[in-house]
Specification:
EC number: 2.7.4.25
Radius of gyration: 17 Å
Number of strands: 8
Order of helices and strands: EHEHHEEEHHEHEHHEH
Enzyme class: transferase
Pfam family, one: Cytidylate_kin
Keywords: ATP-binding, Cytoplasm, Kinase, Nucleotide-binding, Transferase
Strand content: 15-25%
Oligomer: single chain
Helix content: 40-55%
Subcellular location: Cytoplasm
Length: 228
Amino acid sequence: MDKKITIAIDGFSSTGKSTLAKQLAKELGYIYVDTGAMYRAVALYAMQHDFISETHFDKESLISKLPKVTLQFLFNPDLGFAEMYLNEVNVETEIRTLAVSNFVSKVAEVSEVRSKLVEQQQHMGENKGIVMDGRDIGTVVFKDAELKLFMTASSETRAKRRFDELTEKGQEVTYEEVLKNVEERDYIDTHREDSPLIKASDAIEIDNSHLSITEQFEKVLDLVKSVS
């Protein structure tokens, strides 16, 4: 491959965006950025400070504290990937819970949150050679990315994947809870006013409902080779 490019991966929750992005970054020697982890970390911060719960969301208090929110990705050589740090504390495990999943889309709706994180994300990708996944990477963060992918799968398939992932980590959840979370996040992500989840006009859609991880990776790697 002759040149470094920017790879933008968007799509619905639990479509394996992060898995694919990690595979590509490792294969290509690129930087990987999980923007979902950044929004999850802000959601966790809001939960920790009682700005958000099932009964309320104090957006103004969260907005006022955003200057105090520091996000970092620090590489863990034992795991082989970078973990999310919130104000210098490793929160990689905490942000992956269903509790955080229940609030992350609501936090991501806040324009001030999106503005802060998009600015950081664009700075990370200034030198290309980056794989970034999220909800608005190809439509907002990197509009000129050389390769844009849009990942999708049925809500039932995604819920089953997410349920298996959570139970393997020892979390006590039901499939019905996870399916409800997936469907609610889909609705919020696609209906928010600021940067809703949509497929960029020049993005390649990949429905991986019936693709193995290996099949998906090989298919996308061929696409990368065709543009780099």
